[in-house]
Amino acid sequence: MQCPQLEERIEKTIQRVLQKQSEDHVLQSFIKKDNKYELSHFVGSVRPEHIQVTEQNGIVTIQGHETVQQEDGSSCMYAFARHVPLPQGSAIQKLESHLKNGYVTLVLPH
């Protein structure tokens, strides 16, 4: 089944990510800033209630999904998951996450 609305959203998302990567705003892993580590991941227009951040065995997982209703009544689902190892010496109990402008940002004290 083709999902033109979903394909259009994915294409726009890819273009935004590529643009941000060229501007060096997309982080590929945790980076150290002052006394904390930060990681940003682009999630586009996925609603906050559909995004989940978990940690297991030293790996942080950011995952989410969004369903798009088509004009013909059918629906398409977009899902993603990103797994990133925690930096050594980070305090997972103090992990903070924020969603702003289509990015989930994770902050870990060092």
> H/E series, N to C?
HEEEEEEE
Largest sheet: 4 strands, antiparallel
The appropriate CATH architecture is: Sandwich
Low-pLDDT segments: 21-27
CATH class: Mainly Beta
Mean pLDDT: 80
- What proportion strand? over 45%
Shape: elongated
Strands in their spatial order, largest beta sheet: 1-2-7-6
Any idea how many domains? 1
Number of helices: 1
> What structural class do the secondary elements suggest?
alpha+beta
Provide the CATH topology: Immunoglobulin-like
**Portion in helices:** 10-25%
Instruction: Please compute the radius of gyration using only Cα atoms.
Output: 16 Å
Strand count? 7
Question: What distance separates the N and C termini?
Answer: 47 Å
Outline:
The protein is an alpha+beta fold. The chain contains one helix and seven strands; from the N terminus they run H-E-E-E-E-E-E-E.
Keywords:
single chain; 110 residues; alpha+beta; Immunoglobulin-like; 4-stranded antiparallel beta sheet; 3-stranded antiparallel beta sheet; 1 helix; 45% strand
Can you describe this structure?
By secondary structure, this protein is an alpha+beta fold. It contains 1 helix and 7 strands. A 4-stranded antiparallel beta sheet has the order 1-2-7-6, with no helix packed on it. It has a 3-stranded antiparallel beta sheet with strand order 3-4-5, with no helix packed on it. β1 and β2 form a beta hairpin. It is elongated, with a radius of gyration of 16 Å.
